[in-house]
Structures are given as structure tokens and as C-alpha cells.
Write a structure and sequence with these properties.
The complex is a heterodimer of chains A (about 725) and B (about 300).
Chain A (H helix, E strand, L loop, with lengths): L3 E7 L1 H27 L14 H33 L6 H21 L15 H23 L8 H19 L3 E5 L2 E4 L3 H36 L6 H15 L14 H13 L1 H14 L4 H4 L3 H23 L2 H7 L3 H30 L7 H34 L12 H38 L6 E7 L11 H6 L2 H25 L15 H12 L14 H7 L37 H9 L1 H4 L10 H4 L7 H10 L9 H21 L17 H11 L2 H5 L6
Antiparallel strand pairs in A: 1-4, 2-3
Chain B lengths: L4 H25 L6 H31 L13 H5 L8 H4 E6 L2 E4 L5 H22 L7 H22 L15 H19 L15 E2 L5 H10 L15 H13 L15 E2 L5 H6 L4 H6 L2
Antiparallel strand pairs in B: 1-2, 3-4
Helix pairs in contact in B: 1-2, 1-5, 7-9, 8-9
The chains are: A mainly alpha (about 725), B mainly alpha (about 300).
Chain lengths: ~725, ~300
């Protein structure tokens, strides 16, 4: 008989992450509700820069993904990892550093995003100093996790831990590769990559952030908490092996399905489609193993709110992972992309899978670490029904809205003309659905408030077992003979880590290396020239205000788009775009050709439109950017920006940085003169002209530049 | 493993799922430009799949909720649902339980279900076929070619439409409209579309004054019609031809000419362009009695 060793589990760190999960969950969802209301009631932008939709939307996504779901992952991992390894966390100090630094990062995000400090890459908006902090803290997490694994008293690693390891290693790779930025100031940087390459890297990241931050860690959590809550064995060990390896291998390849019908090379798009289709079975493997684990416990689902959360959460996962591959089929994507359909899709995943599983785990954990029972099962059941109802009320209107608007964008009359040439008409038609969606969100949030109360009362009725006493036999030194092949890997964590790393690197390398190295993938266009200093500054304002959250810059090769916007976008047009600004959602019209062809409007139109959009477009839901007329363009960094761009390969002549501000001022004066000629005043009553150094002038310069390069050239195709 | 009718049914189910997917993939390869039928087809498959799945889950949940009694007595018989999923009877569980546990969690040594493997390998085969179709033999209509085909189809459609609708209004056939109802409609349209630049009364803001006798692009009805239709992109006026129908532009041009002199000199924007005598005199003669038009000839 081996010696029984006594030790204790650290529950305090689990409690801390749990509290953070709940607080950030409420914050993130409240911000989401505000953003949802802004989309039909522009006054909810509160007429100040900090709460406009363009800045609030990234705050919502970051808060929900990295604060709510992130803390939930750490809560779940810190509790389960100790028990699955039969040891305390490797280091209490590292645990504490991890916890507090992660919260600090979130606070930094909550401050910098409303201030407009953003890289514009979706779900990677945080600027470079925060990126570095995230990298360091992720290493702390990995160190602590691996230290724990290496000190385990359990010979083999349970499937949950495989998922934790794959999560750790892949998120590290994704974050580092997608954070190649050249700083041009304390909170400003330009991405190393440009245009098509930048888009590929971003969506390789964006897609796999969903895969390895929202999916794999939660599958790991499911494999621990579901059998615990249901008190049933895992349905199939073999299935968990198959779906684990195929999932992490195939997921990585599917990123390009976010870029179908764009200027990304066709071969890369096809890989995105094909690997998405192949992803159905590996994704469903997780769902099947989850739902079939409940076999024999179904009668308990009736009473047990926790199991209900699991069942609907896992089902939502199954639906979202079936819908994802369907959306990757090019003909479905052609309708759904840029519409609310995608918003519905991600919320089925986020509210259903991540939300409901998190709630289940919270309800299961809180009484255990406080050595008590749940305050009210009835409230938990009510929460379950509110959450489910909320998801339905959220998703159905958004599917409807996405389909409606997508069809309106594409509809031609018998004469071959667009039936809805004015974009605003398509916007107005979906506003009632946006109202319904915000009601759905509010219902879901109401459920969360019930949970907060229920958990609070639960915690009050017990005492935190900060150090839970436990005992386990010491680790056996000798290895078993004649094991199943995978059992060998399961007792070698470093090997598991390296194998996962290799498996997840393949897809990214195959897709990215040719796109970066083979010139044919991005045919150059001679007429495409670098931005003028004023346009560059204007572009930075466009990035700061988060215009990309509502306006795409990617005319897809459909007649419905070329009729509406002009010639479809070519890869070569974006070579100086650090970062790319293709966008992923068209709440407003595409802006790729805003300055060219039949979309071109006067400087005065743009000025009036930015100040009060509804004056120029009746019923516009765009926020008012009147503050841009009062703020002065800061040109202190202009020269540095030119130098930075040259470092990144933009061909500004040597020494141009010395002349940049002068050029900027003369171009700005031209626009200010135009406004004056058009009879536009900053303050009409007192006859105050719009100053040439107002930020709005730079933004107008950028908007007027958009799409003009290619119209200058007849040889646009090569 | 025993083969029995159950496995056949599973096979059929798998076939159904995979054929749904392949039908989706197939339609891409054959994509002739977008038609509603094809869209509906794909989406029907998509929605149908989701719906079937949902119904399955709901059915399962409902049957649990209805089945208040404990289901233990009928352990011996597998339900259709269980057979479809190729599950082993519950009594086999003890023999399937593996010899290890993690923090009390046991795992069963169930094989991956055959229908799962069918789905998995099926999608891989579809993927390979897709890549061959697009990038090895033929181009499977990559997006550039798909776009060209779409243009060609619409060019043909447009040509046949225009052949049938020769009477459409253009700058040569445009005539002055005096119907007050139509002009009233144009006035409303003017307020929402034109007034941002030309002022509520046409007095001019960033756009020129439309009420004086000075014109940048000509004050003849045909010229005004032309300016509205094609816009003045360099100066920031967008072409309205895609947005307004030719008939609406005819009404609007007539309405704009009806604004002549309605804003006192000096109250609007300063004159721009050449002075031209009020137009269109020739049409005005016919309808001189009409009040609206009488404004024009003053």
C-alpha cells in the first residue's frame, strides 16, 4: 500500500475568480445592453466621445470574452485542476499574481477602450502595453498550471486537462502572432502586417479566440463539472481522444471563413470553407460526449437547475457549431456576412454555451466551497427559464433581421436596378427587431441578477473553506506496462503540450506563409499610393472612434455591391493599410469607395453628416460626432507615424517626415476653405469658421481618399 | 459488431445529414448568380437541420418531463432514440466502465458511435471533393468568374427589359409636370433628400441656390433633369439615377423649376453660374393658365 499524503486545496483563489466572473459578467452585459439600445436610439450614445457605439462595442466584447468568460475559465480550472491532479496549486503567490494582474488588465481595458485607445483588431483591440501585460500574465497562468500538473499525485491526465493545456499553448501562440505591432507612442501602434495579410492573421486569431478561449477551455470544464453534477461516468473515452485531437487540429484552419468573397486569395478561402465543414463532427463529439454522459440521469434534469443549464448550454454549443460550418458555405455566407445573422450566431454561443455553463458551474461551486447548500433552487430554476427565454428573444429577431437586411441589400428590380438603393431604408426596416433583441438581452440579464442574489444569500449562509483538507496516495513511480497508446501520452504532460503545439501550428503555417511570401497572392496596383499625412491622421481618428465596428471597407464581387458601392475591392488596394479596416459588420454602408465614383460627396456634406447624421440622411442611427469639430488635431506624432510606416514598408521618401506636417497643414487648409465656400460655419451665429486644425478635417480628408486610387487607374485588375 | 436493422437506419440518418451538407456544397459549385430559389434551398436545408435537431432535443426533454415515473424498470429495452444513437443497454455499463477514475469521475469504454464516424469521414471526403473541384480540375466558379457570370446574366435581363420598356423618360423626352399632387410629392422628397444641401426652400446651403436665375449646369428642364440624374460628383452631388426613378426625377426637375423666384433676392445664397431666363418657356405656353407654371414665366 502506498503512503497516503495529506494536503489542502486552495478554494480562496476559486472564490476570487468566481466573484470576478459575476461582477464582470454583469458589467459586460450591461454595456452590451447599452450598445444594443444605441442601435435604435442614437441618443443613447449620450453625446460624448467615451460612450459612442464605436468605443462601447469593443468594451462589451472584451468585457464578456476576457473578463466574464476569462474569469470563469480560471475559476473552473483552479478548482478542477487541483482535484484532478490531487494536489494544491503549484504556488499561491502565482495564483494571486494571476488573479490581481488579470483584474488590472481588465480595468486597463475598461479605461483605455472608452478613451479610444484601440488597435482596431476585433477581440484584440487592447494596445501594446496591455498586450505585453497579457502575455506575461498568461505565462504566469501557464507556469502555475504546469507546476501543478508536474506535482500531481495522479499518474494520468484526465481529458479536461488536455483541453486546458491546448488552451494555454494555443492562446499564447495566437496572442503573440496577432500582437506584432510597432509602437508610435505610449498607447498607439501600427500592425506589422498590412491589408490582406493583416486580415488573414486577424481572422486566424479571431476565429481561434472563439475556438481556444470560448470553446476548448469550456469543453474541459464540461468534462469535469458535468459528470460531477450528474454523478455519471463520461460516455466515451475513445470519443474524447478522437474529438480532442481533431478539434484542435482542424479548428486552426477555419479562420479564412471570416473572409469569404473578400480579396483574400481563393485557395485560402477554400481551405476556410473545407476545414469548417470537417469541423462539424469534432465539435459535435464534445456535445455527444456531454449529452450522453447524462444518460441515466435524465430523470434528474427535471428537478436540477444545474443539469438544465448544462443540457441547454451544450445544445446551444451543438447548434452554433453546426451553424458555423453552414455559414462557411460560400452561398450562405454571401447572405449572412456583414448582417445581424452573425450577431445572432455568436450570441447563441456566448449566451448559450459560455453563459449557461458558467452559471451551472457557479451554482455548483458556491455551496461546495462555502460548505453550505444553495439558497434557493426555485430561483435557480427561474434563472434557467429567464436565460433560455432571453436567448430565444435575442436570437430569433436577430436571425430575422439579418435575413431581411441581407435580402434587401441584394434585391434587384426587373430593370436591374437596386430596389433599395438607399442603405438607410434597409436600416429602418430592422429597427423593430433591434428593439426586440434588446428586450431579449434584458430578460437574460434579469436572470443574471437573480443569480447574483441567490449566490449572495448562499455565500452568506456558509463559511468559505479557504483551505480544503484532502488526502491522496503518493504518485507511483513505476509506469504501467502495456498501456493503450494514448494512455502513454496522458502521463507525459510535456509531450502532450508539444504535440498540441505541433498540431495547432500546422494549419496556421500552411495558410499564412504562402500569403506572406508569394507575391501573386497580393497583386500590386501601381496607382495605389501611401496616404498623405492628413489622411493618415484621419485614418487614426477613424480607428480611434471605432468606425470599423459599423462600416466595412470591402466591396465583395457581387453585382448588388458593385452597383451600390462601385468596383469590387482588390487585394492590391490595401497594401499600405496598417491595420486593415475591412470590418465584419455593416450597420452602416460600406465605405471602401466613399470618396470615389457615384458615392463621392462634397467636404461640406461630410462635415454636416458627421456633425448631425440625421440632417443629411433621414432616420440615420449614426452617433453625432460634433466633438470632432471642437477637438484640435495633434500633429506632434505625425512625423513619427511617417517614420513608423516607412519601417513597415510604406514607401514614403527619405526625409519626408520633416515635410509631413507642412503638407498636412496645407491639405487641411484646402478642406477648411472648401467648407467655407460651401457656407459651412463652426458657429453660424458668430460667423466662426471651421478651423483647419480641427480633427474633423483630417477625418474628412481620409473619407474623401477612400477608393479613389483605383479609379485613377484603368489597369486596376493587375 | 452485430449488424441489424438499427444500423441500417443509422446509416440512412447519416446519409441524410451528409447529403444535406453536400447539397450545400454542391450548390456553391453550380452557383449561377443568385436567385431566390437557390438561396431558399440552401437555407431550407440549414434551417431544416437545425429544426430536426431542436425537435429531437425538445422531444427528449418533453418525454422526461412527462415521464414522472422512474424509468429504471424498462432497462432491458432500448428506446428508438437510444438505438438511433447506437447506445449499449444500461446493464452493460459496469462492464464498460474503465479501471481508472479522476476525482471520482469514471469513463466508459464506449466506441465512437458509427454514425459519428460516418459524419466525420463523410465531411472529410466532401472537403477533398470541394478542393479538387475548385482548384485542381476546373475552377468551380471562383468568385471572380461567378461575378462575371452574374454581370452577364443581368446585362441580358436588362437588355430584354429595356427592349420592352422603350417609353422610359430620359433627358430628350422629359416634359414639364404641372400636376399639383405630383409636385407636392416632389416637395416632400425635396425636404428629405435635397434640403440638406440646397436648403428647405431651395435657397442654397452647401449646394447652390435653386430659386434664382443663375445656373451652374443649365436651367433648362432637360439640363436640370440631367444634373439630378447624373449628379455632379466632383462637387459632391451624388447621381440620383439609381435612387429615384426617371419619372420621379422628371417630377423633381419640374418642382425645382417651380421654385424660381420663391425666395427673395438676397435672402438665399449668392448667385452662382450663368444667368438664364426662366425656363422652360416652350412647355409653359401650353399650360400658362396653370398657377404653378405662371410662377416660372414671371
Amino acid at each position: 500500500m502506498t503512503q497516503i499524503e495529506k494536503f489542502s486545496y486552495d478554494n480562496k483563489i476559486v472564490r476570487n475568480f468566481g466573484v470576478a466572473t459575476v461582477i464582470w459578467g454583469v458589467v459586460g452585459m450591461l454595456v452590451g445592453l447599452l450598445a444594443a439600445i444605441q442601435l435604435y436610439e442614437p441618443a443613447a450614445n449620450l453625446s460624448n466621445p467615451y460612450t459612442t457605439f464605436g468605443r462601447i462595442r469593443p468594451l462589451h466584447t472584451n468585457a464578456v470574452i476576457f473578463a466574464f468568460v476569462g474569469n470563469a475559465i480560471f475559476m473552473g480550472v483552479y478548482y478542477s485542476l487541483q482535484r484532478l491532479c490531487k494536489t494544491r496549486m503549484f504556488s499561491d503567490v502565482l495564483s494571486r499574481i494571476h488573479f490581481w494582474a488579470w483584474q488590472l488588465i481588465i480595468v486597463a481595458a475598461a479605461i483605455t477602450l472608452p478613451l479610444g485607445m484601440t488597435t482596431s483588431h476585433e477581440y484584440a483591440e487592447l494596445e501594446w502595453p496591455i498586450d505585453i501585460a497579457i502575455t506575461l500574465i498568461w505565462v504566469v497562468f501557464g507556469w502555475n498550471m504546469f507546476g501543478t500538473i508536474l506535482r500531481r499525485r495522479e499518474k494520468h491526465l484526465y481529458v479536461a486537462i488536455w483541453f486546458y493545456i491546448a488552451t494555454f499553448v494555443t492562446v499564447a501562440v495566437l496572442h503573440i502572432v496577432n500582437s506584432f505591432e510597432l509602437p508610435v507612442g505610449f498607447m498607439k501602434s501600427y500592425y506589422w502586417y498590412s491589408g490582406v495579410q493583416d486580415a488573414l492573421v486577424q481572422w486566424w486569431y479571431g476565429h481561434n479566440a472563439v475556438a481556444f478561449f470560448l470553446t476548448t477551455p469550456f469543453l474541459g470544464l464540461m468534462y469535469y463539472y458535468l459528470p460531477k453534477a450528474a454523478n455519471r461516468p463520461i460516455y466515451s473515452y475513445k470519443l474524447s481522444i478522437l474529438h480532442f485531437w481533431t478539434l484542435i487540429f482542424i479548428y486552426i484552419w477555419a479562420g479564412p471563413h471570416h473572409l469569404l468573397y473578400t480579396s483574400l486569395p481563393n485557395w485560402a478561402q477554400s481551405l476556410g470553407t473545407v476545414f469548417s465543414i470537417m469541423l462539424i463532427a469534432p465539435s459535435w463529439g464534445g456535445m455527444i460526449n456531454g449529452l450522453l454522459t447524462l444518460r441515466g440521469a435524465w430523470d434528474r434534469v427535471r428537478e436540477d437547475a444545474i443539469l438544465k443549464f448544462f443540457v441547454v448550454g451544450i445544445t446551444a454549443y451543438g447548434m452554433a457549431t453546426f451553424e458555423g460550418p453552414m455559414l462557411s458555405l460560400k452561398n450562405v455566407n454571401a447572405i449572412a456576412h456583414f448582417t445581424d445573422w452573425i450577431v445572432a450566431h455568436v450570441h447563441v454561443g456566448a449566451l448559450g454555451w459560455n453563459g449557461l455553463l458558467t452559471f451551472a458551474i457557479l451554482y455548483w461551486l458556491a455551496p461546495r466551497i462555502y460548505n453550505t447548500t444553495l439558497y434557493s433552487k426555485k430561483l435557480a430554476n427561474t434563472h434557467f427559464w429567464l436565460a433560455t427565454l432571453g436567448i430565444i428573444f435575442y436570437a430569433v429577431p436577430m436571425y430575422w433581421s439579418g435575413w431581411t437586411q441581407g435580402q434587401m441589400w441584394k434585391e434587384f428590380g426587373p430593370d436591374g436596378g437596386l430596389v433599395y438603393p438607399e442603405f438607410i431604408k434597409t436600416t429602418v426596416s430592422i429597427l423593430p427587431l433591434h428593439i426586440m433583441r434588446s428586450i431579449g438581452g434584458a430578460i437574460y440579464l434579469t436572470g443574471v441578477f437573480l443569480m447574483v442574489y441567490n449566490l449572495y444569500k448562499t455565500v452568506k449562509s456558509g463559511h468559505l473553506v479557504a483551505n480544503e483538507e484532502a488526502e491522496a496516495p503518493a504518485m507511483v513511480k513505476a509506469n504501467p506496462q502495456k498501456e493503450y497508446w494514448h494512455r502513454v501520452i496522458e502521463r507525459k504532460p510535456t509531450m502532450l503540450l508539444i504535440l498540441s503545439l505541433i498540431v495547432i501550428l500546422i494549419g496556421g503555417v500552411v495558410e499564412m506563409v504562402p500569403t506572406f511570401l508569394i507575391k501573386e497572392n497580393v497583386p500590386t496596383i501601381a496607382a495605389v499610393k501611401p496616404y498623405t499625412p492628413l489622411e493618415l491622421e484621419g485614418r487614426d481618428i477613424y480607428i480611434r472612434e471605432g468606425c470599423v465596428n459599423c462600416h466595412s471597407q470591402m466591396v465583395r464581387p457581387f453585382r448588388s455591391e458593385t452597383e451600390r458601392y462601385g468596383e469590387y475591392s482588390k487585394a492590391g488596394e490595401f497594401v499600405y493599410d496598417h491595420p486593415f479596416l475591412w470590418g465584419s459588420k455593416r450597420t452602416g454602408p460600406d465605405l471602401a469607395r466613399e470618396g470615389a465614383g457615384h458615392l463621392h460627396k462634397s467636404d461640406g456634406w461630410h462635415y454636416s453628416h458627421l456633425v448631425k447624421p440625421s440632417d443629411m440622411t433621414e432616420n440615420s442611427i449614426m452617433p453625432e460626432y460634433v466633438f470632432l469639430t471642437r477637438s484640435t488635431l495633434n500633429t506632434n506624432k505625425t512625423a513619427d507615424k511617417i517614420v513608423a510606416m516607412r519601417t513597415l514598408g510604406v514607401p514614403y521618401p527619405d526625409g519626408y517626415e520633416n515635410q509631413a506636417v507642412k503638407d498636412l497643414e496645407s491639405q487641411a487648409k484646402g478642406i477648411a476653405d472648401n467648407l467655407n465656400k460651401e457656407g459651412i460655419w463652426l458657429d453660424e451665429e458668430n460667423e466662426v469658421k471651421v478651423p483647419a486644425d480641427a480633427e474633423v478635417i483630417a477625418l474628412i480628408a481620409y473619407l474623401q481618399r477612400l477608393g479613389t486610387d483605383i479609379t485613377k487607374s484603368e489597369t486596376a485588375n493587375k | 459488431m452485430k449488424t441489424n436493422p438499427v444500423n441500417k437506419r443509422i446509416f440512412a440518418l447519416g446519409l441524410l445529414i451528409v447529403s444535406g451538407v453536400s447539397a450545400g456544397a454542391q450548390t456553391i459549385a453550380e452557383t449561377v448568380p443568385f436567385g431566390m430559389n437557390e438561396l431558399l434551398w440552401t437555407v431550407t436545408i440549414l434551417m431544416g437541420g437545425l429544426l430536426l435537431f431542436l425537435i429531437g432535443v425538445m422531444y427528449r426533454l418533453l418525454s422526461i418531463l412527462k415521464d414522472k415515473e422512474s424509468p429504471t424498470p424498462k432497462e432491458e429495452k432500448l428506446s428508438t432514440w437510444e438505438k438511433l444513437l447506437s447506445l449499449r443497454p444500461m446493464k452493460d455499463e459496469a462492464s464498460l466502465t474503465m479501471d481508472h477514475s479522476y476525482d471520482g469521475i469514471y469513463e466508459l469504454d464506449n466506441p465512437t458511435p458509427p454514425w459519428f464516424n460516418f459524419l466525420f469521414y463523410g465531411t472529410i471526403i466532401i472537403g477533398i471533393i470541394y478542393l479538387i473541384r475548385y482548384h485542381v480540375v476546373g475552377d468551380g466558379r471562383v468568385q471572380e468568374n461567378e461575378y462575371q457570370a452574374e454581370l452577364a446574366m443581368w446585362d441580358a435581363k436588362k437588355a430584354s427589359y429595356e427592349a420592352k420598356h422603350t417609353e422610359s423618360i430620359n433627358e430628350n423626352t422629359v416634359t414639364l409636370v404641372t400636376d399639383p399632387a405630383k409636385l407636392q410629392k416632389s416637395a416632400e422628397l425635396f425636404t428629405s433628400k435635397c434640403s440638406p444641401c440646397h436648403g428647405k426652400k431651395g435657397e442654397g446651403i452647401s449646394g447652390p441656390n435653386l430659386t434664382d436665375q443663375y445656373w451652374l449646369h443649365g436651367g433648362k428642364l432637360s439640363q436640370v433633369f440631367n444634373t439630378i440624374t447624373n449628379g455632379v460628383p466632383l462637387k459632391g452631388m451624388i447621381p440620383w439615377k439609381g435612387i429615384l426613378k426617371p419619372e420621379q426625377i422628371q417630377d423633381m426637375a419640374s418642382y425645382i423649376l417651380s421654385l424660381q423666384g420663391t425666395v427673395p433676392e438676397g435672402a438665399g445664397k449668392e448667385p452662382q453660374g450663368e444667368k438664364m431666363v426662366a425656363e422652360p418657356a416652350e412647355q409653359a405656353q401650353d399650360t400658362a393658365s396653370n398657377e404653378t407654371v405662371s410662377l416660372l414665366v414671371k
